[in-house]
Write a structure and sequence with these properties.
Blueprint: E1 13-14, E2 24-25, H1 27-41, H2 46-55, H3 68-75, E3 84-86, E4 89-91, H4 102-108, H5 113-118, E5 136-139, E6 148-151, H6 152-157, E7 167-168, H7 169-185, H8 187-193
Antiparallel strand pairs: 1-2, 3-4, 5-6, 6-7
């Protein structure tokens, strides 16, 4: 009923003095774990939570900046509801104190449907790269309000399979809408496309 922990412990917990004892809650870190779960339930994604922690001067257990992966590893870890995961088997009757209740933890595992409704991406799954034919994906650089369409092959291979690093999404969407309106309003154009 005990997790395996490094000498430093898991974020939000202080390691036990004896291996046979459970870890104890580190209230300063646990406060931020609860903050992460609360933001997740408000519809925040991992990147926004990581940026929110960095903006507030909160550091990881090693004193570094937060990443999407470090946020997701906390949100997905059943340890924070007091359960221990051993090789895929979750022991619900562990001796670890919970930082968040089970209901909060389970609700935080649900997909962020509301976030996608608030930020529709008109060309998701439709736009293709002019250079390689790969799918274009929406991309927003950290700490910027701009949104770009970037080639998925470029992103996945670090530019080794395609040179298209992206373009502003707004002008591309406007041009697509202009062409669609032209086709829909002109019967001969519409007949040609059909």
């Amino acid at each position: 009923g005990l997790p395996s922990m490094s000498r430093r412990g898991q974020y939000g917990y202080d390691p036990a003095v004896l291996r046979s004892d459970p870890p104890t809650i580190n209230e300063e870190e646990a406060r931020w774990v609860r903050w992460m779960f609360a933001r997740r339930l408000e519809g925040w994604g991992g990147l926004r939570i990581a940026q929110g922690l960095d903006d507030r001067g909160v550091r990881t257990a090693r004193g570094g900046r937060w990443s999407v992966g470090s946020v997701h590893s906390i949100l997905a870890n059943p340890l924070y509801r007091g359960a221990v995961n051993w090789g895929g088997h979750v022991n619900e009757k562990s001796r670890v104190p919970a930082i968040v209740d089970a209901d909060t933890w389970h609700r935080a595992q649900q997909p962020l449907v509301r976030a996608y409704r608030r930020n529709p991406r008109a060309l998701t799954g439709l736009a293709r790269c002019a250079l390689c034919g790969g799918r274009m994906a929406y991309f927003s650089p950290p700490r910027r309000n701009d949104t770009f369409l970037r080639c998925g092959r470029y992103a996945a291979t670090g530019g080794r399979q395609c040179e298209s690093n992206g373009m502003m999404a707004g002008p591309v969407e406007e041009e697509v809408l202009r062409v669609v309106r032209k086709v829909l309003y002109d019967p001969t154009q519409y007949a040609h496309y059909v």
